[in-house]
Amino acid sequence: MLKKQTVWLLTMLSLVVVLSVYYITTPEEVKNDVALTGAEAEKGDKAEAVKETEKENDKGEVTIEEAEDGTVVSVSNDELFATMRLQLEDTRSARKESLEDIVASKDVSAAEKSAARDEMNAIDEAVANEEILETFIKSNGYDDALVRIEGEKVKVTVKAKESSASEANKIIQLVSSEMKGMKDVAVTLEPSNQ
């Protein structure tokens, strides 16, 4: 019986050694290509979504904005929320990708890796809270809502039939009741085309 256990133990140890050598000798470029392919596919999906929204009938006003990189963007009032969501998602995806690179790097200290993981978790938590708030605001009779949480600040853009201080105050109260720790809430009301 002891001989069988010894053979089993040596087999398992040799398996661990072989797998370790394989993992160490596998080039990192292969791992990065897989991640880049996924990111490229995601960018392709976003580009298709933007093209589909451009094909839809334009309703309402058209806003022409100049982006940070100097490109001029023409956005109708109905596409404003979709465009803002895509920009926010792109920014966060790029930030998370750089944080993932920090976590995967062998040249970074454990404290820096931990800070990067904490920031990634904070981004994920902010996204989840934003989705909850958007659903909550829409369920209270508003046409559309976009919530952006940046630290302790909450920026809310709402498509509403009425644009008044009382509507903005109502939205601030909704956000404050749902998110207890958020004290700095800014609301922007966009007119609804309906």
TrEMBL record:
It comes from Metabacillus idriensis. The chain crosses the membrane at residues 7-25. The keyword Membrane applies. Residues 41-60 are annotated as: Disordered. This is SpoIIIAH-like family protein. It holds the Pfam family SpoIIIAH. InterPro entries: SpoIIIAH (IPR024232), SpoIIIAH_sf (IPR038503). Keywords: Membrane, Transmembrane, Transmembrane helix.
